[in-house]
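Appendix B: complex inputs.
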Amino acid sequence: MSQSASVLLMGHPNVGKSALFNRLAGASIAESNYPGTTVEYTKSQLRLNNEPVPIIDVPGTFSLEPKDRAESVAIGFLESEVNPTVVCVIDATRIERGLNLVLEILDRGYEVVIALNMWDEARRKGVDIDADMLADRLGVPVVQTVATEGDGVDDLRSILDRANSSSLASITDRLPSKVHDDSIITGDEPAARWDIVDTIVESVVTYQETDPSLSDQLGQLTIAPKTGLPFAIAVLYGVWAFFSSVAGFFTDGYFVPLFDDHWLPWIQSAFPAEGSWLYFLLVGDPTAVNSFEAFGVLTSGLFVAVGVVLPAILALYLVLALLEDSGYIARLAVLLDAAFHRIGLHGYAIVPMVLSFGCNVPGVAATRTLETNKQRFLTMTLLSVFIPCGAQLGVMLSLIPQYAGYILLYLLVGFFVFGAVLNRIVPGSAPEVAVDIPPLRRPRLANVIMKLSVRIRGFMMSAVPFVLAGVGIVNLLYLGGAVDWLATVFQPVLSGWFGVPEETVPALIAGFMRKDLAIAQLSAVSMSPFQTVMSVVMVSIYFPCVATFAMLIKEGRTSGGIIRAVGGALATLVAALFIWGGLLRVIGIILGVA
Amino acid sequence: MSDNKSKAESQSSVGANGVSCRRGCRRKGNRRQCKRLSDLECGETGTIECVECGRPNLHSMGVRPGKRITVCTKHPFDGPVVVSVGRSTVSLSRSHARQLEVTTEQ
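Resulting structure:
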């Protein structure tokens, strides 16, 4: 008994596996209200009879025949673990399809415990399930749970050691009216399984008519084209308005005065050895009067990371969490489905896209829920090229608030134009999909706060060091003369094709590290408004930040091979940079502003 | 809205495997009419007759023969058809909806 068998949480997407995992293991992984939140497994420890037992949350799966990479992860775990205890998590409001998966798992001989989750919602919807009888019929323990509230979690923990296996034949024997015996003999036939499901449901579940709730009615209105599209435009505009005003409120109202009036002058005078290389590296320009232009690790670096980006992503992550938890993203996916079809994707590609506005890294990871290599490649390439992350948007809003919205629109149009072109060039299929639409739910404050704190902590741990290191590296390159050399080399392209000065080179270097930093660096270059817009668009498109690039390599490996995926992405971004950047200059020339 | 229990036995014996699936609508006459799901109007309800073979995905989402299916909305430009089936809301692409045969009461 040294190595306890692990506990696996399995079930359909969006039934609350991650919520249950968090309650069981005291973990804090993301819980949302859209199918496909979890694309990678999470492992933790569960204390059972004073013994640590590994517990694993896996991506949701509809059946044991995987249709995408996230589902393969789940089934891979089921097959590779030795004698796992499988906690089958079922959405009690739609017990039928959950039971179908349970029977599939039982049929393979695994030991199972059933968590009838969302018990509260089932009651409200008039679904009454006799859990004891269900346990009798199936021959495995059944617990009612409300994972988001923690109800029934202790009960579940206490019966984990009573997990049981149960053959379909024995289940059939226990059923009141025998199902067609001939079909049971070939046990794994889907139709036979459904027959058993129907017979079980008939005897243990009663449905009462309930009036459609407010959330049902809102759910209908937000998905019907006539009411849903205006609503979607209002939501998206509202998200943008909230994000830009809240970010500006904190940055301009508090952090700019704090850094410009107090921190910058203090460190400029207090830091010893003005004129030394260390001073240049850490403090930057001793005569700078604002924190964007000083460009030292402790001046601009700290200011961009904490004073500009932190409030911006705090605001953005808050609205993203509300979108994720309300169940609205899936409705947006349906409304945009026809548009995404034009570029070889389907509406559900909106999930990686929306996540990318927070940060491209989870956006690229979320492409795992797409079905084919082509779709994954298209989505990860387009979003890493055209979707600016929240940090970058935050700096744009702080530096050029009057242009930020237009730049975003220009990039989004580029997303679709290049998507349409790639769709024609890239071989592969783009299958039609069926998507589950979760009910609209009120986001839970505790979950929103938990998500925000996890993501902000992630930002502080991984992004802030990158911003600071980025400033340091650019300054070192300055000291070594590399910046001047690169500026001379790229001057013909920069001024000839894009019409921007060679002083933008440091920003392009910084862009490898962090896009927000790159935009901040542009503020130090004196340019016409159009040149500023142009260079911001260039920085957005030209190369994903190093974290996104690492993720592209990781995901590319399983989406058609590194060389194809990453090479294709790089080729796309070079083409996008020159064509979409060049087009912007042409537009500028026509408008007479370039 | 809620499931009608008695209907379960009527059609659920239609196999989901390749052979018996392509049985299609034979119950014409009988005051039942056979249609493609994509031809149903918004708000119209039918009983799923045959789900195109090779789409076990749909079955595991609860879209399977014998179930009552109601069209909630149909999106323009060949967009998806949102249906309510077995207490779930599912968005089917237009091509799925064309391949799905349903019978409606007249």
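The first helix of chain A runs from residue 17 to 25.
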